[in-house]
Amino acid sequence: MGPEKAGKTSTGRRRTAVPWLLLGLWVAVLAAVGPFAAKLSDVQHDRAVDYLPSSADSTQVAKIEDRLPGGEATELVLVYHRDGGLRSADRDTAARQVAVITRANPLTAAPEAVPSPDGSTLMYAVASNAPGTDEKKRDAFVNDVRDVARGTDGMSVVVGGPGALATDAGEVYNSLGGPLLYTTVAVVAVLLILIYRSPLLWLVPLAVAGVADYLSMGVAYGLHQAFGTSVSGQSSGVMTILVFGAGTDYALLIISRYREELRRVERPYDAMKEALRGCGPAVLASSGTVAAGLLCLLAADLNSSRGMGPTGTVGVLCALLAMLTLLPAVLVLLGRRVFWPLVPAYGSEPKQRRSLFSAMGTSAGRRPLVVLASGAVLLGALALGALNLPGPLKQQDSFAHRPDSVAAMETLARAYPGRGTQPITVITPTGRAEATLASVRAHAGVASAERGRSGGGGWTEISVIARGAPQSAAETATIKALRADLGGSYVGGPSAQQIDLQDTDARDRLVVVPIVLVSVLLILVLLLRSLVAPLLLVAAVIAVWGAALGIGGLVFGPLLGFEGTDPGLGLLSFVFLVALGVDYGIFLMHRMREESRSGAEPAAAALTALRTTGGVIASAGLVLAATFAVLTNMGLLQLVELGFVISVGVLLDTFLVRTYLVTSASVALGRKVWWPGTLSREPDTEAAGKQEPVAVG
After folding, report:
1. Ramachandran angles phi, psi of 452, nearest 5°
2. What is the 3-state secondary structure (H, E, C) of 416-471?
3. Which candidate, 668, 581, 655, places its Cα nearest to that of 614?
4. CA nearest to 462, candidates 444, 481, 489, 494
């Protein structure tokens, strides 16, 4: 056997061996992470106090309560109501049910009936230390109470209070996994079928994304075990969205370039090598930018936001790894037939079709300044809608569908208009307990205050009922006044937790937003070797974020009837839209830079980049927007609002900003868009040099 033939044989073996080796490695990896992926839900926590930083007053209250005799209390309110007034039989029924609950559960105190002034409602406060901080035991206690407390013959009975609210919220979060995954898969599948028009091809990226999602769950569990990374229902849900959204985007780009190379290269293995050489660097750079933006959330104080940074990054990087290794291996092994019926034959030319993006680019190139100014005015006008966003979202308003705990709060608010129905907890040093109790009772906003448990390292608990309704302006003022006056004591409870959430979110916005902007800008400067182009992309994504929030302001309250906006919406939507928007900008600007290096004039380079990348970016944008839109079908308004704003922002970025505004700005700036790089001064010098890989075909 001659050396040339031996070389060909060796190459042929490599073409066959490498894909199978990659498949074998992935099987081994999945077998290793499988036991850990199944445990991710076990370490997921969704109590409000789990979201807060350790420095918050309400967090300190929860920690000290854990050390008090009996540990943390699960507090419930049983609400018996009949329109027109309760009957004596109703009161007897309520007393019997409460007696059954008292005998079956170790309660902190015997529940006492509190009738409403109008006689229509009877309220019983029920609390138990038995569940402690175990969410499963808490849910079992709440459900046991609900099984006993049932209405009869026109009398309604609902179970509310902080414990019931937490259980209802937990049920929504626990239900996210299955429906979120199935809906996401269905949405992506439909879009891929429409994009590829092939009975087989759409299955490949979808299956690979599913593998990446499984891997990400195992890695996220490992991060939690190794570094204590907080995992919430929100962060794990967003991680799944990112795996399928970003992963499918990378698959679209790779498959598009692979199809192109199959027409020029005979063997699928060699065609895939060329495809990865061409678009791989841009995919790596884009995913790195998204990961860097998400990791900036580590600077947040809010545990839920800080935990979303690593989990989101895990999702993006697992998707990247799968799409750069497993996807190419599967495609090579399946060969050209995977594209049936539109098989890209070797030596063939693609059908020339009139490109929508070519027409859009031409219109943007004729009068770039007019297009740019019109787009800026439109985005600015939409951003004004953010002024119409509802106020902070109250705990009882956070459910898309009204559970019993919310119905209980609404009934209590109507029946007890001058009385708080949700306790505020004050933790004070035992030596000052009596003085603190007297000071609390002297506050004008306090209806009643009672001394509770003592111990836990010298601390005493005081239960306070405010005159204002839960999370009303009056109750908020009372909590802030107590915190200001009770030096050395901590003020917590459900309403105090919501105040701390809002304050921490406000702090995080001031800290994290500048870090994200600086980090993304530096990465773009290094990638594009320019200062103007990165500033243009960053300004574009900021405008998109403002406009998307503005559309939310025009829709949430007036059209959807939302009572509030999640305090974390601004920060999280900013991080995702900036990171993901810049992601698409890299593909466009990288191709524009390649055209300029080849000697094209600035206007021609911009229009060619849009024509060649527009279709793929549009498909990727549709998939990403659709995956985030899945969140709008979930049961919590904070997820609905986040999914809506990000979906709208991605669509604005894809079909308005990338196609018209960035293109028209690049045409208007000409070579200055690459300032201070060499392309801004010497457009023809680099054309003779070694060319970099083209990002997108």
Report:
1. -115, -135
2. CCCCCCCCEEEEEEHHHHHHHHHHHHCCCCEEEEEEEEEECCCEEEEEEEECCCCC
3. 655
4. 489
Mean pLDDT rounded to a whole number for the chain: 84
Can you give the pLDDT at residue 87? 92
Burial of 259 (0-12, 13-18, 19+ CB in 10 A): buried
Between CA 233 and CA 224 the distance in angstroms is 14
Neighbours of 488 (CB within 10 A): 8
pTM, 2 dp: 0.82
Structure tokens at 647: 């979906």
Alpha-carbon separation of residue 600 from 37, 367, 691 (angstroms):
50, 19, 13
What does the H/E/C string look like for 355-396? Answer: CHHHHHHHHHHHCHHHHHHHHHHHHHHHHHHHHHCCCECCHH
Nearest to 175 by CA among 401, 494, 407: 401
| H-only helix segments in 529-568 | 532-555
Share of the chain above pLDDT 70, in %: 91
Query: Which amino acid, 93?
Result: T
Phi, psi of 567 (to 5 degrees): -60, -30
Least confident of 148-157, 259-268, 687-696: 687-696
State the average pLDDT over residues 475-490.
Answer: 91
Instruction: Please tell me which of 15-24, 119-128, 456-465 the model is most confident about, judged by mean pLDDT.
Output: 119-128
Q: How many residues does the chain have?
A: 697
DSSP annotation of 107: B
What residue type is 26 in one-letter code? W
pLDDT tens-place string over residues 32-58: 988 888 888 778 776 666 777 878 888
Residue with tokens 């200055």: 672
Instruction: Look at residue 264 and give its three-state secondary structure.
Output: coil
pLDDT above 50 (res 105): yes
Band of pLDDT at residue 688, cut at 50, 70 and 90: very low
d(CA 629, CA 115): 45
Question: Do residues 578 and 520 lie in contact, with contact meaning Cβ atoms separated by under 8 Å?
Answer: yes
Query: What is the number of H-type helices and E-type strands within the chain?
Result: 23, 8
* Per-residue tokens: 14: 């490599």
Q: How would residue 352 be classed by pLDDT, with cut points 50, 70 and 90?
A: low
d(CA 64, CA 538): 45
Whether 250 and 280 have beta carbons less than 8 Å apart is answered as no
